[in-house]
Specification:
23% strand, disordered N terminus, 13 helices, 7-stranded mixed sheet, binds iron/sulfur cluster, Rossmann fold, 3 domains
Length: 473
């Protein structure tokens, strides 16, 4: 069965999550905005910056779009289906606008640049279009749109990182938070639209990152995930200290805030994750033993067409190196099936590499051609859809088996779990994660523990997605 266990098929992106007005509801606001986010964590993180900018400008949050003055969709372009979902939502919002003509509808994020004309002029679906580097201009654009003008800003920037904006934590559990450390991407993977939608890579001021993490810790947060499309190429010249801050050094600075603050990061490109990073992880117990290392394909020929710049052998050696430095490290990956010219043999190479790496979890997709990318220009999208989907199905089934096998190996072991909140199924159980990023569910009974506490939990049973255990005092 597809996607029944821990492995997720991400041909469905995270689907339009609206947030609950928490902090944002406290001030007096003139107007209400509603925001729905799609795609990767970077986009969800950007919505928190947008919320902060709007709060400063008199807009308070609402979780109900029918009462909003401003309805925003923070969009994703990564696969065709992601774009289709957004279009469907826009048509629903249009309907609401019929009875509330003053309401403004805006598109933010990765679809902005590609579809601005279509959305604004051809289809008249939206009132404003704002790209990922232009959120500071949002209040002005809203005013323009209010006066009936077409409000667009999709300019990409070489230096915008929103470093000074303190994000309004939307939909937060109060324990774990995402902190953006860089924007854009300079890797030209041939299938990928991100370098076009988000522009050139740039790193955020290290001092502002560390300050944001300290602030989160002081407010009771116990885990931060440092975010970027390619975190290992983080680079910041700290002029005052006369020091270059690499990703390894940044990790160390954040780890040193407090041993009780867990540090995670995402995403690492296999070509860029250095020994220095692995050795830093080894030195600090609070840097989590978990690496998301997207492989995309197990065939060297396909990897070359994808412009990933590593071979199958090189990737295997990277996995070996990770596990020799960090023997208990959890590993996950991204896989694309049915990329241009992929043969059955290439597909088998992917399957065998998955078995070699024994991933704990994978995000798996079938190839979706994106206009303007290198692959769209150079190669024919020649693997029939049913073949792409059959291969995806095989990859998913293999991953489900691997996840279950790996979870079974954890039965009998004890893990330190950071409690994130109630289990989804029952308020009598806690839910949290191990350093390896595995979800662990266990009964609250007889314990005075709270959300945000660390507890040792002994694993007694598992599914492919979850470990089930009991607190051992
Ligand atoms: N920066 C990250 C990936 C961001 S996109 C990295 O380099 O790993 C997340 C994932 O979406 C990619 O890893 C890839 O597996 C998938 N993806 C990207 N473009 C795609 C496309 N055109 N079709 C199908 N999947 C795609
Ligand atoms: Fe896309 Fe490759 Fe950049 Fe990831 S590293 S965002 S897959 S171009
Ligand atoms: Fe989608 Fe843009 Fe992220 S295309 S995956 S929201 S960077």
């Amino acid at each position: 069965m597809l996607g029944s266990l821990s492995s997720k098929i991400h041909d469905e992106e995270r689907q339009g999550e609206a947030y609950q007005p928490g902090v944002a509801g406290k001030k007096e606001f003139r107007k209400k905005f509603y925001i729905e986010s799609y795609g990767c964590q970077m986009n969800f993180s950007d919505s928190e910056i947008v919320a902060s900018i709007l709060n400063e400008n008199g807009f308070g949050a609402t979780a109900n779009y029918t009462e909003a003055d401003l309805v925003l969709l923070n969009t994703c372009s990564i696969r065709e289906k992601a774009e289709q979902t957004v279009r469907n939502r826009l048509h629903i919002f249009r309907q609401v606008k019929v009875s509330r003509p003053g309401m403004l509808i805006g598109v933010l994020g990765c679809m902005a640049e590609r579809l601005k004309e279509k959305f604004l002029e051809e289809e008249k679906l939206v009132d404003l279009v704002v790209g990922p580097d232009a959120y500071r201009t949002l209040p002005g654009l809203v005013e323009e749109a209010e006066s009936g003008q077409k409000a667009v800003n999709v300019l990409l920037s070489r230096d915008e990182t929103y470093a000074d904006i303190s994000p309004v934590r939307l939909d937060s559990n109060g324990v774990t938070a995402f902190v953006s450390i860089m924007r854009g991407c300079n890797n030209m993977c041939s299938f990928c639209v991100v370098p076009f939608t988000r522009g050139r890579e740039r790193s955020r001021d290290a001092g502002s990152i560390v300050r944001e993490c300290i602030d989160l810790f002081e407010r009771g947060y116990r885990e931060v995930t440092l975010l970027g499309q390619n975190v290992d190429s983080y680079y910041w010249m700290d002029e005052t200290a006369g020091q270059v801050v690499t990703f390894a050094l940044l990790l160390e600075k954040v780890a040193l805030i407090d041993p009780l603050l867990r540090v995670r990061f995402s995403t690492s490109h296999p070509k860029d994750i250095t020994d220095e990073v692995l050795l830093t992880m080894q030195r600090y117990e609070n840097i989590c033993r978990y690496i998301h290392l997207p492989v995309q394909s197990g065939s060297t020929r396909i990897l070359q067409l994808m412009n990933r710049t590593y071979t199958r052998e090189w990737y295997r050696a990277k996995v070996d190196r990770i596990l020799s430095v960090l023997p208990d490290c959890g590993l996950s990956t991204d896989i694309i099936t049915g990329f241009c010219t992929e043969t059955e043999e290439d597909h088998q190479d992917t399957m065998s590499l998955m078995q070699y790496a024994r991933y704990d979890m994978s995000y798996m997709f079938f190839y979706s051609e994106r206009p303007g990318t290198l692959a769209a220009r150079r190669y024919a999208d020649d693997v029939p859809e049913e073949v792409k989907k059959r291969r995806l199905d095989e990859v998913v089934r293999l991953q489900n088996r691997l996840s279950l096998e790996k979870n079974k190996e954890d039965v009998g072991k004890t893990f330190v779990v950071l409690i994130e909140g109630d289990s989804k199924k029952s308020a009598a159980d806690w839910r949290g994660r191990s350093t390896q990023n595995k979800v662990i569910v266990f009964p609250k009974t007889g314990s005075t523990r709270q959300k945000g506490d660390y507890v040792p939990v002994k694993i007694e049973d598992c599914t492919g997605a979850t470990l089930l255990g009991r607190i051992v005092e």
